[in-house]
Amino acid sequence: MTANQRILVVEDEPTIAKAMADRLTAEGFTIEIAADGPSAVERARTGRPDLIVLDLMLPGFDGLEVCRRVQAERPVPVLMLTARDDETDLLVGLGVGADDYITKPFSMRELAARIRAVLRRVERSEPAAPDTLRAGPLEIDPKARRVRRDGREVHLTPTEFELLGCLARNQGTVLTRAVLLEQVWDWADASGTRAVDSHVKALRRKLGADLIRTVHGVGYCLEIPA
């Protein structure tokens, strides 16, 4: 999967940037580094990376603005790095187009695993999927990877799209966080429940709060209001 795949690492700490670049190069990726917001946007435009590892705190302008500008030009998977385990920051990051996040400090092994998981979700194909999956006001096109609510197109990240598709295919059924982690994130353990919760909140912000019901202590269910 790593052959010829390009990753843009956006990190202003040279030591951290080099450590990430060295590990990801050893994993078989082609790496480019940017150290501030403006150069990150420019290198995303010219280099057309397959994924961006993006620090939240950057000189020039921050990672949120980088993500907004990059996604406006060309959708690309983004793994956001943050030293602040603050839910508001994470939700804003997801809302502007980040697919996943990892909180500093992290191991290089975890970083590589998370990158591979995001890339797997992007490359995942659904050959048996119907042309359009309809769930109340939602129209989900698996082939074009487009979502509309009440005829209005809604931009979702690859992870958000996979999560919504999983919920829609099981409409009316409560899916536990562990099931969602396995089916959407390819995680075999339940250590990433925060990721599920954050992405559900991002979906609600984009699609409306009336479609996904929380079953406290269990998981989530896509329900179409009467």
Outline the structure in words.
- By secondary structure, the protein is α/β, with parallel strands linked by helices.
- The protein contains 8 helices and 12 strands.
- Strand 8 and strand 9 form a beta hairpin.
Number of helices: 8
- Strand coverage percent: 15-25%
Structural class: alpha/beta
Average pLDDT works out at: 86
Oligomer: single chain
What topology, given as strand order, has the largest sheet?
2-1-3-4-5
Biggest sheet overview? 5 strands, parallel
Write the element-wise H/E pattern from the N-terminal end onward: EHEHEHEHEHEEEEHEHHEE
Helix fraction by DSSP (H/I, runs of at least 4): 40-55%
Distance between the termini: 44 Å
Low-confidence stretches: none
Shape descriptor: globular
Number of distinct beta strands: 12
Query: From the alpha-carbon coordinates, what is the Rg to the nearest angstrom?
Result: 17 Å
Protein name: Response regulator transcription factor
Keywords: DNA-binding, Phosphoprotein, Transcription, Transcription regulation
Domain OmpR/PhoB-type: 130-224
Modified residues (4-aspartylphosphate): 55
Describe how the helices and strands are arranged.
Blueprint: E1 6-10, H1 14-26, E2 30-34, H2 37-47, E3 51-55, H3 63-73, E4 78-82, H4 87-95, E5 100-103, H5 108-123, E6 133-135, E7 138-141, E8 146-149, E9 152-154, H6 158-169, E10 175-176, H7 177-185, H8 193-207, E11 212-215, E12 219-222
Parallel strand pairs: 1-2, 1-3, 3-4, 4-5
Antiparallel strand pairs: 6-7, 7-8, 8-9, 10-12, 11-12
Modified residues (4-aspartylphosphate): 55
DNA-binding region: 130-224
Domain Response regulatory: 6-119
